[in-house]
């Protein structure tokens, strides 16, 4: 499979996960890291799409953090 666009590095995903583990000895498999990276990518893309739609609904030419803040509660509920 050929990747297009930005991807999350496994090292970054691993560090993010380990920040929230209570047991520091917890290990994460390569497959789990790859799956988490894909989930993060989907989440970020969906947030961007929803923010663009929100900006369009407000007749704006660009997306600002305000549009992201408006769509974020529903996005978090959907995930």
Give a quick precis of the structure:
The protein has one domain: Histone, subunit A (Orthogonal Bundle). Helices cover 65% and strands 0% of the residues.
Distance between the termini: 25 Å
Number of helices in the DSSP assignment: 3
Sketch the major β-sheet. none
CATH topology: Histone, subunit A
How many E strands?
0
CATH class: Mainly Alpha
Strand content: under 5%
Specify the CATH architecture. Answer: Orthogonal Bundle
- Spatial shape: elongated
Q: Which structural class matches the secondary elements?
A: mainly alpha
**Alpha carbon gyration radius:** 16 Å
**Which range best describes the helical content: under 10%, 10-25%, 25-40%, 40-55%, 55-70% or over 70%?**
55-70%
What is the count of distinct domains?
1
The chain-level mean pLDDT equals 91
Which ranges are low-confidence, i.e. pLDDT below 50, for 5 or more consecutive residues?
Answer: none
> N-to-C SSE series?
HHH
Subcellular location: Chromosome, Centromere, Kinetochore; Nucleus
GO molecular function: DNA binding
Protein name: Centromere protein X
InterPro entries: CENP-X
Verbal overview:
The chain has helices at residues 10-18, 30-57, 65-78. It is mostly helical and 79 residues long. The protein is elongated, with a radius of gyration of 16 Å. Helix 2 (30-57) crosses helix 3. The chain is built from three helices and no strands. The protein has one domain: Histone, subunit A (Orthogonal Bundle). The mean pLDDT is 91. 65% of the residues lie in helices and 0% in strands.
What's the structural blueprint in terms of helices and strands?
Elements (H helix, E strand, L loop, with lengths): L9 H9 L11 H28 L7 H14 L1
């Amino acid at each position: 499979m050929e990747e297009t666009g930005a991807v999350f590095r496994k090292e970054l995903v691993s560090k993010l996960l380990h920040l929230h583990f209570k047991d520091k000895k917890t290990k994460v498999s390569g497959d789990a890291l790859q799956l988490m990276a894909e989930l993060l990518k989907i989440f970020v893309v969906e947030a961007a799409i929803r923010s663009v739609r929100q900006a369009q609904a407000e007749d704006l030419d660009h997306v600002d953090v305000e549009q992201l803040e408006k769509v974020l509660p529903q996005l978090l509920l959907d995930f």
